[in-house]
Design brief:
Layout (H helix, E strand, L loop, with lengths): L1 H11 L3 H27 L3 E5 L4 H14 L3 E5 L7 H8 L3 E5 L1 H7 L7 E4 L6 H4 L4 E4 L5 H11 L5 E6 L5 H13 L3 E6 L6 H6 L7 E3 L9 H13 L4 E3 L11 E5 L1 H16 L7 E3 L4 E5 L1 H7 L13 E6 L2 E3 L1
Parallel strand pairs: 1-2, 1-3, 3-4, 4-5, 5-11, 6-7, 6-8, 8-9, 9-10
Antiparallel strand pairs: 10-12, 12-13, 13-14
């Protein structure tokens, strides 16, 4: 508070003929000081634990820092030789961020400090049910995914999905409910192993207009990816996926959370947790997504790009009641 008193004294010590001139400057400077200092004072130390240094994770970290503030320590697990839990106990943070599954796993033994996880696909339910855990999903909600599909390919009515009972049934259920909102039909096939996938996909030939690939470690292998790329491209069926990397393998469109955006969202969530405005455990959907189209596949399939999307461009989109804001 010494700095605050100093600013007040400077403003009050002006001579009468200069006091009016300096009044607005002093008020502005005082407000600026409170704005800069207030962020650090209001929100205590948090630690970000990040698995590896890769661009999406770094974007998440930037988003967290821009939203939460600068009172943050950061640990990269790759190459870290110390005792992570011991370090956390010594630093006594008020909250922890876990970026990636590796980071979440390494923090799972901590039960008395709130933990927010990000960039974790299908997190372990035994962790997410704990009363100190919150997270932001790594998938775009099915309703928003189908919104973009319908806007880009309005003729697509029949949606094909392959899922396994162990890893992706819940995602399939979400899509099954969402298609009703858009008056679409879902054609789903349940398989238990990657070896069953080619036969299940082949049975869909002629009965679907678009295929949605969902994350499932049982089903997504190099062999099945190669089979799907050839099968669907040969039949001019667009494939919508959950990750940009599959565009290079022949997918038509990728719809996935904006890493920087979920970092910003996590910073805001952290503030609510510390202010006791939200109860744990909690799982939130990302508020912002990126839509990216493969221009080569677009040309091969002969689709016309609807207004609001750009071929080959990184289009951040947020669904609102009025449509898409880019």
């Amino acid at each position: 508070m010494n700095n605050v008193n100093y600013i007040k004294n400077v403003c009050q010590s002006q001579m009468p003929h200069t006091r009016l001139i300096n009044k607005h400057f002093c008020l502005f400077f005082f407000a600026l000081f409170l704005f800069v200092a207030g962020d650090v004072l209001a929100f205590p130390l948090a630690i970000v634990v990040q698995g590896v240094m890769v661009r999406p994770y770094d974007e998440v970290f930037k988003g967290i820092k821009s939203s939460y503030g600068s009172n943050i320590d950061r640990i990269i697990l790759y190459g870290y030789k110390g005792d992570l839990e011991q370090y956390v106990r010594q630093r006594q943070p008020s909250l922890l961020f876990a970026i990636g599954k590796w980071a979440l796993s390494n923090l799972s033994s901590i039960n008395d400090i709130p933990i927010i996880y990000l960039m974790v696909l299908n997190p372990d339910p035994s962790i997410t049910r704990k009363r100190n855990i919150a997270g932001i999903e790594m998938l775009v909600p099915a309703t928003r995914e189908l919104f973009h599909i319908r806007r880009l390919i309005p003729a697509a009515k029949r949606v094909g999905v392959i899922y396994s009972p162990k890893h992706s049934r819940a995602i399939y259920r979400d899509i099954s409910e969402a298609v009703k909102q858009y008056h679409m039909q879902i054609i789903g096939k349940e398989v238990v192993s990657a070896g069953d996938l080619p036969r299940a996909i082949s049975s869909m030939a002629g009965s679907i207009d678009i295929f949605i690939m969902i994350p499932d470690i049982t089903l997504i292998t190099p062999d099945t990816l190669h089979f799907m790329a050839l099968f669907f491209l040969k039949r001019s069926i667009p494939v919508v996926t959950f990750s940009e990397k599959y565009l290079k393998m022949g997918a038509f469109m990728a719809i996935y959370p904006d890493p920087y955006g979920i970092g910003v969202q996590a910073g805001g969530l952290a503030k609510k947790i510390l202010q006791k405005r939200i109860r744990l455990p909690a799982r939130l959907w990302p508020k912002k997504e990126i839509i990216k189209v493969n221009p080569r596949v677009l040309n091969n399939l002969g689709f016309y790009m609807q207004t609001g999307y750009r071929s080959g461009a990184r289009a951040r989109a947020r669904v609102s009641s009025n449509g898409i804001d880019q």
